[in-house]
Amino acid sequence: MSHNTFGHLFRVTTWGESHGPALGCVIDGTPPRLPLKAADIQHWLDRRKPGQSRFTTQRREPDEVKILSGTFLDEDTGEEVTTGTPISLLIENVDQRSKDYGDIKNKFRPGHADYTYLAKYGIRDYRGGGRPPARQTAAPAAARRPGPGKLPRPPAAAAPPRPPPPPGARKAGSSGGAVIEIVMSGVPAGLGAPIYGKLDAELAGALMSINAVKGVEIGDGFAAAALTGEENADEMRIGNSGPEFASNHAGGILGGISSGQDIVARFAVKPTSSILSPRKTITRQGEETDILTRGRHDPCVGIRAVPVGEAMAACVLADHLLRHRAQTG
């Protein structure tokens, strides 16, 4: 089991490395006859792509997506539509500079997965780290668009990193972290399951799978531990269109099932581990040494994590919507 696939009925398998020739994903479970063309996906990739501000990596990647399978021209409408078969997406890497990593090929970078990758697989791709880097997040960002047509989509939420990157962080070769909030509106009540298919658990797992994410909370999250039962209870009344809640401490999910309120999730992104300040480390041969990491890196990777978080949330919602329909009709 390679653990490169997530989802149940709406399944996404990602592939590729930061410094390989390309990366992409295969999406299985998309219903047929949904309009889909490359431009629909490109919008989301353009929001994530590097080189768009001084607080992101200066690597220049167009992130142009190509649809290799799973669509066909509908002669009745003249539109490209999904066929119901796997959709394969390709994004070529065009601006790799693997030589930037030659000096550290035998050193473990603190905060990176260099050591754990070698410990698990017995091989390490030192050219940017292989699968862990932020470059890999282009694939799930592309996967969000082919979800079910009527799926509520999380809006572009959150964004300024808290706290913002220190002035001059990029020039100094340092980095900062971020906290990102995603609000998912229009999600119907009933998505999820009570125990092993909890909607909040699977949202948390999807957000935790994003590179550099170290914490996730739903609704009030950890702050709920400081409330009393009276303060935390989301009281209910009957409104003109059904149940209404006086508050949303639970973040739109009760007992693992959506309540129909806005679903609110936050995730914390650590400071980028690749920095120019010398740090203590060891070599593959077990020698103690210092290391600094040259190359083009995000001073705050959380900025480009916003559309990635939205994409992962959208994929989870798509999967749960299909599972809900399959179970309840």
Account of the protein in words:
The protein is of the alpha+beta class and 329 residues long. Helix content is 21%, strand content 22%. The protein is built from seven helices and 16 strands. It has a five-stranded antiparallel beta sheet with strand order 1-2-3-7-4. β12 (253-254) and β13 (257-258) form a beta hairpin. α5 runs antiparallel to α7. The longest helix has 27 residues, at 302-328. The radius of gyration is 21 Å and the shape is globular. The chain starts with a strand and ends with a helix.
Helical amount among residues, as a percent range?
10-25%
Mean pLDDT across all residues, rounded? 86
Give the percentage of residues in beta strands: 15-25%
Q: For the report, how would you describe the main beta sheet?
A: 5 strands, antiparallel
What is the secondary structure topology, with strand pairs?
Layout: E1 5-6, E2 11-16, E3 22-28, H1 38-48, E4 65-69, E5 71-74, E6 79-82, E7 87-92, H2 114-121, H3 138-143, H4 169-172, E8 178-184, H5 199-208, E9 213-218, H6 229-232, E10 236-239, E11 242-245, E12 253-254, E13 257-258, E14 263-269, E15 279-282, E16 288-291, H7 302-328
Helix pairs in contact: 1-7, 5-7
What's the short story on this structure?
The chain has 329 residues and is α+β, with helices and mostly antiparallel strands.
Core attributes:
single chain, alpha+beta, 329 residues, three-stranded antiparallel beta sheet, five-stranded antiparallel beta sheet, globular, 16 strands
